[in-house]
Write a structure and sequence with these properties.
Blueprint: E1 4-5, E2 31-32, E3 48-51, E4 54-57, E5 68-70, H1 76-90, H2 97-110, E6 145-149, H3 157-165, E7 171-173, H4 174-184, E8 189-192, H5 199-212, E9 226-229, H6 233-246, E10 255-258, H7 264-273, E11 277-280, H8 282-291, E12 302-305, H9 308-313, H10 317-333, H11 349-359, H12 365-371, E13 376-381, H13 386-395, E14 400-403, E15 411-413, H14 422-428, H15 439-445, H16 451-459, H17 461-469, H18 486-493, H19 509-525, H20 528-535, H21 547-557, E16 566-572, H22 578-592, E17 598-602, H23 606-621, H24 628-641, E18 676-679, H25 685-697, E19 701-705, E20 720-723, H26 730-737, E21 747-753, H27 760-766, E22 772-773, H28 793-808, H29 812-830, H30 834-837, H31 847-852, H32 860-868, H33 886-891, H34 909-916
Parallel strand pairs: 8-13, 8-14, 9-11, 9-12, 10-11, 12-13, 16-21, 16-22, 17-19, 17-20, 18-19, 20-21
Antiparallel strand pairs: 1-2, 3-4, 4-5, 6-7, 14-15
Bound molecules: adenosine-5'-triphosphate (ATP).
Adenosine-5'-triphosphate is lined by residues 169, 171-173, 176, 195-201, 382, 712, 714, 738, 742-743.
């Protein structure tokens, strides 16, 4: 190891009044000298020079003249430290670099602030904040609600009543109105609609409808009928919970959850007991496919890939491909079992009769598919990528593309090229319920596809004529054919409106039967004239709106749709002011806001999340922060190593720190009442789900998180999304912002940018996202309530920054966490994908200022040294650890043969690297990466 010459100067390196007492760690300077001779050399610049333990004061005018000899060193502790340092340098062989670092940290911690706090140069040398003029951007609009109700759909009245009474949902959302009838037809589908637009219900409701209609009724031992794959555990829990609510009236349908991090044994037992609907993360599902015999997809008739682009982005492509392959293989392998068609003996006679009648009345083709060897596949996302297009190409057969944004094709069907008068249809789609598939194009779907539609044709001549005229147009701008009877059916349905809230028995097939009878009668009553009148309003022209074309053009256009109810702004803040600005925005929104705001703060790395959540909570609320799990494991470790000493044998400092709140003097802070939550992919599973549930229930508070919370999560009442770190792509921006303004609620989104990053908004404008620059001068205002004695907001910010720095330097643990957070952010920053690097350029960063924004007082060089010696900071580059290594693939039965149809190179590797560390499949390591050598 390189020799180190440690020049300990007790003078501050920057200007200071002569004779001042030196208390800041930056006063010490460590100089590397390869020609180290063992001597400690005094430097000229400092006014206090260390000479063999004696402190000698010099003057600036006569630097070599000793004017006074201090009998005592400035502080005993510093003296010890200095002696330790010297000792270390002399015993260099015995110690590794981290020991030096440990001492350097101890020196920093030993420094106490002066009574007034450190003088912070927060407001000096900051770059000017540029004014980014707003360009005329016309955002793409998507109408959220349709004015139609669930009873307008051709679904079971118990479902309608359940939605109204238990889920409190009445009106149909656009995507639901468009997608549900098509899904009920059993068509494969790609759905794109904006965040918070109700996509989950758009597929979950028809799936439950299809399942409940199967006769004889399915039971949990029949096998898994529906598989729903989602990218994160929280989303899996959320989706599973929705299914639980939807199947309430149909208790014979059993949903189940497989998400990473849970005990495999419990999940195995659940699978053995049997499930009808399986919701899970791809890694975990695959894990069970390999290890759990009872997981079989032979009966699976529907596969849903939610947040499809993210599933591919996260490196799950192999797992997704393996799931698709398993479904195909299991279905093929399943032998035809004629006995299965014989009803159970214990089914009573009456039920058998009902079943028979209902069987002949299968309402939806989806029910047929769920009973057959076919498969329906549904892909969904608010944003599309080339990888999704490729995935669609592989997994979808004769698909329909539904895009709910205005001005674009509402529906693009792969079956017959159609030219649609888009504007007219967009205008008409809310008002005019249309009939769906026509006979002439149904033939292309396959014989078994549209039994119900055949019936429709018989019922209505005019529909057939219309179908011919439109060349079999699949225009799902309205409701299915049941809508045509909606008014009368609604009246008749009244008697079915109440659903037992706690249904423990199977729903009564009597009422089902009666309902179908009434419905049939009503259908018959409906005249051809009525239908024609309604359809005549639409006169779509011919040719040209095919699935692939529509998807391609949607991807090429690369325009993103944002909820119009979200007020989007960006705030340009110089680096040094970022942390205090963040605190100010939190206080303003969650403390000063009388209604009590609920906000999400997105950060780049899990180290940042952990550190900031604890630091801000400690300083703003004055609470002692205990990280229970960490503390426990540390306590155990300490016990094992010898009481109170760390691995270097040095006294370990307490990891807890209580903020000393002074009487409101100039530098004093008063604690505020604030609920803090943090969420990232490396948290323990139980903790992670607990935080998710707690924040979901909370009325106000702050969630600091990584992008693990950016997708699909429906967290009620979130009225502000703050992006503390710029997103890795415009798509990520959309999904982060999408956590607010859901279901047409009002929300706000603020993106914090550095002056060097300000032009990033131009990139978003190109995607038709419109943002307004917020006035940064007011962003610190809220801090005056935290530091009431401060003369102005700048003083308040300085007081807060001082306290933040003081806390960050209060123990070795804090300091290590701060450094880790800083280092992880620097690494993250230099890994921004190429598309955005011109605006988010690591070369533009001022690392010294950046350190300040992490409440650190070190120089970048010192921080780099610390990160090198930090055993906890992973040295290897972040890898896509969710994908299974190729060599492991080969060992899996059947897995190695999977041909990955969608080009994994298409996926943005950079972006997957960014997210890789945030997500965890919950899988144990497949093989130990190395074996420890025993000496
Ligand atoms: N018909 C409806 N009426 C009112 N609210 C609804 C309706 N359907 C769904 N919602 C609510 O809308 C919210 C958003 O729904 P959901 O989570 O399905 O959106 P999403 O489109 O999947 O969003 P993301 O793209 O972010 O995943 C949920 O709170 C849900 O309960």
């Amino acid at each position: 190891m390189e020799d180190l010459q440690l020049n300990i100067s007790v003078a501050k390196t920057n200007k200071k009044k002569p004779g001042a007492v030196h208390k800041d760690a930056s006063e010490y300077k460590f100089v590397s000298n390869p020609k180290f001779t063992g001597k400690t050399i005094a430097r000229k610049r400092p006014r206090f020079i260390a000479q063999k333990g004696n402190y000698v004061k010099t003057t600036e005018e006569e630097p070599n003249k000793k004017v006074a000899k201090l009998t005592q060193p400035p502080a005993e502790k510093n003296d010890n430290l200095e002696a330790n340092l010297r000792n270390l340098s002399e015993n260099k062989g015995k110690f590794q670099g981290k020991n030096y670092q440990k001492l350097s940290d101890d020196i920093q911690i030993a420094q106490k602030p002066r009574s007034g706090g450190w003088i912070s140069s927060l407001f000096k040398n900051n770059p000017d904040v540029p004014r980014i003029g707003q360009r005329a951007v016309k955002p793409i609009v998507e109408k959220v609600f349709t004015g139609k109700t669930f009873s307008d759909l051709n679904i079971h009245p118990h479902s309608v009543a359940n939605l109204q009474q238990n889920l409190k949902l009445k009106e149909l959302m656009t995507v639901q109105q468009n997608a549900i009838p098509v899904i009920l037809q059993g068509r494969d589908m790609l759905i794109r609609s904006q965040t918070g637009s109700g996509k989950t219900l758009a597929y979950a409701l028809p799936v439950v409808e299809g399942l409940q209609a199967i006769r004889p009724k399915i039971n949990r031992h029949d096998g898994i009928r529906v598989v729903v794959v989602v990218p994160t555990r929280e989303l899996a829990v959320q989706t599973y919970e929705l299914f639980v609510k939807l199947v309430k009236p149909f208790t014979w349908i059993v949903p189940g959850l497989l998400s990473g991090g849970q005990k495999r044994k419990a999940e195995k037992a659940r699978l053995r007991k049997g499930l009808s609907i399986l919701v899970g993360t791809p890694g975990r599902i695959n894990d069970h496919l390999r290890h759990t015999q009872s997981l079989n997809f032979a009966k699976t008739g529907c596969l849903v890939l939610d947040e499809a682009d993210r599933l591919l982005d996260m490196g799950y492509e192999k797992d997704v491909a393996a799931i698709v392959k398993s479904i195909e293989d299991h279905k093929k392998a399943a032998t035809y079992d004629p006995l299965a068609l014989i009803p159970d003996e214990d089914v009573n006679e009456k039920e058998q009769i009902d079943d028979k009648e209902e069987k002949s009345e299968v309402k939806h083709h989806l029910t047929d598919i769920l009973m057959s060897k076919e498969r329906q596949t549904i892909l969904l996302s608010a944003t599309l990528t080339k990888a999704v297009e490729n995935l669609a190409g592989i997994t979808l057969v004769d698909p329909v593309f539904i895009d709910t944004s205005e001005g674009r094709a509402v529906v693009a069907d792969s079956l017959k090229p159609q030219k649609v008068d888009e504007n007219k249809i967009a205008n008409k789609k809310e008002d005019i319920p249309l009939n769906k598939n026509k006979e002439d194009d149904n033939t292309q779907v396959g014989d078994n596809k549209n039994k119900k539609e055949k019936k429709t044709k018989d019922d209505s001549e005019s529909e057939e004529e219309e179908g011919e005229r439109r060349g079999g147009l699949k225009e799902f701008g309205g409701l299915n054919r049941h809508d045509l009877f909606q008014t009368t059916v609604k009246k008749e349905n009244k008697k079915y409106e109440s659903v037992p809230k706690d249904t423990t028995e199977e729903s009564d097939s009597d009422s089902d039967y009666e309902y179908f009878k009434v419905q049939k009668e009503l259908e018959e009553k409906n005249t051809a004239k009525d239908i024609k009148e309604q359809i005549d309003d639409i006169n779509p022209q011919e040719t040209g709106n095919k699935f692939t074309e529509a998807v391609k053009s949607a991807i090429i256009e690369d325009e993103l749709v944002m909820p119009q109810t979200v007020n989007q702004t960006f705030l340009v803040v110089p680096m040094k002011l970022r942390l205090v600005t963040l605190c100010s925005l939190i206080v303003e929104h969650c403390v000063l806001n009388k209604k009590g705001g609920k906000m999400i703060v997105f950060m780049a790395t899990l180290e940042m999340v952990d550190y900031h959540a604890d630091l801000i909570e400690t300083v703003l609320t004055g609470k002692k922060k205990k990280k229970k799990d960490q503390e426990k494991s540390k306590a155990k470790k300490r016990k094992a190593d010898g009481k109170g000493k760390d691995e270097d044998g040095l006294e370990s400092s307490s990891s807890e720190f209580e903020v000393d709140y002074h009487e409101p003097s100039e530098g004093g802070l008063i604690p505020v009442d604030l609920e803090m939550f943090s969420l990232h992919g490396s948290m323990q599973h139980e903790q992670r789900i607990e935080v998710f549930k707690q924040f979901r229930e909370a009325r106000h508070g702050v969630l600091i998180c990584t992008d693990v919370a950016a997708r699909g999560l429906d967290l009620p009442r979130v009225d502000l999304v703050l992006q503390y770190c710029a997103p890795a792509s415009a798509t990520d921006y959309v999904h982060r912002v999408g956590r607010t303004g859901r279901a047409a609620q009002v929300g706000a989104a603020v993106m914090m940018l550095l002056p060097s990053e300000a032009e990033f908004v131009r990139h978003l404008e190109q995607k038709r996202i419109r943002l307004r620059q917020a006035d940064e001068s007011k962003s610190l205002e809220a801090l005056r309530s935290v530091a009431p004695a401060a003369a102005n907001r700048a003083r308040a910010a300085i007081a807060l920054q001082t306290q933040l720095e003081h806390t960050a330097h209060s123990s070795a643990e804090w300091l290590a966490r701060a450094s880790r957070a800083y280092t992880s952010w620097v690494r993250f920053y230099s890994g921004y994908p190429r598309e955005v690097r011109q605006w988010l350029d690591a070369k533009q960063l001022h690392l010294g200022h950046a350190a300040k924004s992490f409440a650190l007082r070190d120089t970048p060089a010192a921080l780099a040294r610390r990160s090198k010696s930090d055993p906890q900071l992973k040295k290897e580059k972040p890898t896509n650890r969710l994908s299974v290594p190729d060599e492991v693939d080969k060992k899996r039965p059947g897995f190695g043969k999977v041909k990955i149809g969608f080009n994994s190179r298409v996926m943005n590797k950079q972006s997957s690297m960014h997210t890789a560390s945030e997500f965890d499949s919950g899988l144990p390591p497949l093989e130990p990466s190395y074996k420890k050598k025993k000496n």
